[in-house]
Amino acid sequence: MAESEIFKRENSSFILVNSGFSGDVSAGWFAPEYWGDSASPVDSGGRGGAWFINAAGRQLVLREYLRGGFASHVSRRTYAYTGEHNVRSFSEFRILNQMTSMGLPVPAPVAAWYLKVTPMQYRAAIIVERIKGALPLGDLIETLNGVDWQKLGQVIRRFHDAGVRHADLNCFNVLVVEKDFFLIDFDKGCIMPPDSRPNWKADNLNRFARSLKKIAGDAVLNQVWDKFLNGYEGSSPA
Q1: Taking 50 as the threshold, does the pLDDT of residue 72 lie above it?
Q2: For the residues of 127-145, what is the DSSP string, one character each?
């Protein structure tokens, strides 16, 4: 266990807490009903399961892990338990901690939780800091200029240079605060070994391009993509 995390257990619930967080995190924190009317749903992008909350004087985001696609018809909220090292909330908590220590623009992790529903199944959720004033890129595409797209390319390059592979790089997992960019939702993300094949970076960029095309269309993609790549292929900012 890293020095930056505290491990807690409550019956069948298991919790990691950022050692720098002052709140007394309990298993109840990971249920939106615990927060009552003060929990407000996050509406843009994704498939639901996220709420804005306030705890210990800080603005936070609570996100439950939910299945999408065909798997959601089998089980919306539970995942196969194959060991704590594979629990999605704990994995995301730890990669966020690593990226925070690298100085990458991501929300700081606050706490992660999972509940053993059965010996072979679990539910999970994570709490991260809310990035104040942030809006999803998917809601702001038409407002960005060429310099903004170039800057976004530089930001994505920083993650790739650090070996960070985002498993779902799309326009709703990029947040914009004025002219600064942040990446969120690192479920199934990882830090690639130095000797990994470089094609994962191209796959990441292609996924982002498909998202941009789906939301804004071919004309916008053709208009901004070269500017984005100019930023990505240029010198990585310090």
Answers
A1: no
A2: EEE--TT-EEGGGTGGG--
CB proximity list for 126: less than 8 A, separation 6 or greater:
62, 63, 65, 89, 92, 93, 109, 111, 112, 113
What SS3 class is residue 232?
A: helix
- Of all helices (H) and strands (E), which one includes residue 238? none
Residue 166, pLDDT above cutoff 80? yes
Catalytic annotation present for 185: no
Give the H or E element holding residue 5.
Answer: strand 5-10
Q: How far apart are CA 45 and CA 207, in angstroms?
A: 16
Kindly compute the dihedral angle of the four CA atoms of residues 189, 193, 194, 197, in this order, to the nearest 10 degrees: -80
Measured distance CA(92)–CA(98) in Å, rounded = 10
Tokens of 79: 């995942």
Are 30 and 36 in contact by the 8 Å Cβ rule? The answer is no
User: Which regions of 49-163 does DSSP assign to beta strands (E)?
Assistant: 50-55, 58-64, 79-80, 109-118, 121-129, 135-136
Question: What is the four-CA torsion angle of 119, 51, 109, 86, rounded to 10 degrees?
Answer: 20
Active-site choice (24, 161, 168, 187): 168
CA angle 40, 43, 47 (to 5 degrees): 115
7: three-class secondary structure by DSSP: strand
CA distances to 15, 74, 76, 188 from 70, rounded to whole Å, are: 29, 7, 10, 18
pLDDT, tens digit, for every residue of 18-30? Answer: 999 988 999 999 9
Both tokens assigned to 43: 């509406």
Cα–Cα dist 217/185, whole Å: 24
